[in-house]
Amino acid sequence: MKQVAVQGAQVVGRIAALLRIISRKPEGAALVEVVRESGLTRPTVHRLLTSLAAEGLLDHDGGTGNWVLGPEALLMGSVAAARFPVEDIARPSLRRLAEETGESAFFSVRRGGETVCLLREEGPFPIRSFVLHEGVRFPLGVASAGNAIMAFLPKTEQEEILARWDEHAGTFAPAHPVSLVRDNLALTNHNGYSVNPGLVLEGSWGMGAAVFDTQGRPAWALSLTGIEPRFRKERQEFLGRLLLEEAHQITGKLQNTRK
């Protein structure tokens, strides 16, 4: 019986990993991409994707050949959204940030060791950074949202992540050495907001502020992204103040919904 349980858990883990890979981009992912990122064999990936499609959780786009999320995933997401009304609560703040700053504003959630972008609002400034969009995932400590959240985690939890940093950060590790991450976390904790000086993509800057749950833990983050000249030192205090004001408002509203 124990062996069956382990095997079942392994299948569930594989399916969850495949769904995460495919949901990162609206256009989905090609089979070769899913195989490469999952580390599974091609026959195993194809069998699991086909099974998920039969259940309506995935579709196979005949035009592009990509695997994309299916109608059942939409229905599940709609039910989850009703339980966690973050869009209704966070969207007004995103609009205010985008309008007042001109930049692209985002709302991200922590999922284990990652942040996942949930919402986006574009500002009127015509030149944008396209590093971040709905569904994009980054390891905690990477990008402005992940830095803002990790900076307010308990020290013991931070150290657990930093102790296996190369494994945790993956391909982002070379541009995010542990010493730099530690400095950024300390500065974020001091200022209240994070600054990503083009570490994910050269020339694309970001700033973030954590949003807290009823236990006072950082569970979400607001962020702004744009080109480097729009995030120079003399403007960072202004952007940081706006982020903190809106993050505080969202924190209060989210906590009230849990009462």
Automatic annotation (TrEMBL):
Q: Does the keyword DNA-binding apply?
A: yes
Superkingdom, natural source:
Bacteria
Looking up InterPro entries in the UniProt record yields: GAF-like_dom_sf (IPR029016), HTH_MetabolicPath_Reg (IPR050707), Tscrpt_reg_IclR_C (IPR014757), Tscrpt_reg_IclR_N (IPR005471), WH-like_DNA-bd_sf (IPR036388), WH_DNA-bd_sf (IPR036390)
Keyword DNA-binding applies: yes
Q: Which UniProt keywords apply?
A: DNA-binding, Transcription, Transcription regulation
Q: Which residues form the IclR-ED domain?
A: 72-256
Alphabetical list of PROSITE patterns matching this protein: HTH_ICLR (PS51077), ICLR_ED (PS51078)
PANTHER family, per the entry: HELIX-TURN-HELIX TRANSCRIPTIONAL REGULATOR, ICLR FAMILY, TRANSCRIPTIONAL REGULATORY PROTEIN
What is the name listed in the Swiss-Prot or TrEMBL entry for this protein? IclR family transcriptional regulator
Record the organism. Answer: Arthrobacter silviterrae
